[in-house]
Amino acid sequence: MARSIPPQYPHIEERPLYWRIAMELLGALRDGSFPPGRRLPGERRLAQQYGVSRETVRQALDVLRRDGLVETDRRGSHAALPGTPVSTPTCLAFPLGAGTAEPGTVNSASVSWEPPPPEHAEALGLAPHRPTLVHRYEAAGADGGGRRTAATSFSAVALAEVAELARYRERVGAPGTPQLRRAYDWMRRAGLTLHHHAAITRLPDAPSMRVTRRVHDQYARPLEITDLLVDTRRGALVYEFTLPAAG
User: Fold this and answer.
1) HTH gntR-type domain spans which residues (predicted)?
2) Which of 112, 155, 159, 113 is nearest to 137 (CA)?
3) What distance lies between CA 177 and its chain's CA centroid?
4) CA distances (Å), 5 to each of 12, 25, 94, 139, 246, in order?
5) Order of strands across the sheet that contains 208-216
6) Residue of 204, 203, 200 lying closest to 239 (CA atoms)
7) Phi and psi dihedrals of 147, rounded to 5?
């Protein structure tokens, strides 16, 4: 497993397999992959995800259940960590473009630790070829139409100050789909005030547009940059914003 283990759990390799799976699930609960109140995947799916038996998954859930981290009812298990319940995402949603996907869309996401595109490195103040956390997202209709792809690169500041993002460096290549949808919530919880700027460009000789979003904090330090490519032949790109109250 690629996840780093908290220091209070040393000698993990000496622990039973179900305990190691429990620590994997605990990490997912803590970083928001399963927000409070969100249903966990079923035992069969978790067993496939971690490459273990359903009995091992059942024992791992029992560990978390005894500690009050997971609750189970007739509908299954769900996260019980303190925190804000799952709610409708705000207009500043991560990943960019995910909120407007049409019903029936097929989504995929991945994270990697690699040098970002040169324009991302420049925007984030990274030295050329310096690796960072890169998140990629893709969505398309069941027939392949309405395709949209997004690539996000995070800055050294974001990784240094947002613990949940930093942990994803150790999770690169781990089983399961990376869930960074709460990335902006993690940044705010770390005391960062988010400011964003989006530029929309029509690509020549292609039925697509490019949306580039840059996010920085209250000190004008770059946090992340995202490039989203949208197939304009289907679907719409919707921007929402709120005007301040009259003074």
Assistant:
1) 15-89
2) 112
3) 9
4) 8, 11, 26, 32, 50
5) 106-114, 132-140, 148-154, 222-231, 208-216, 195-202
6) 200
7) -70, 140
Q: Position 164: which residue type?
A: E
Contact 40/76 with Cβ under 8 angstroms?
yes
In whole angstroms, give the CA distance from residue 164 to residue 167: 5
pLDDT digits (tens, 9 = 90+) for 188-241: 888 888 888 888 888 777 777 888 999 999 889 999 999 998 887 765 666 665
Residue 97, token pair as written in the block: 């473009």
- Residue 39 DSSP label: B
CA distance linking residue 147 with residue 132, whole number of Å: 26
32: CB partners within 8 A, 6+ apart? 164, 179, 181, 182, 185, 186
Residue 23, phi then psi, degrees to nearest 5: -70, -35
pTM, rounded to two decimals: 0.61
Instruction: Tell me the two tokens of residue 24.
Output: 């994997």
Pair 125, 222: CB distance under 8 Å: yes
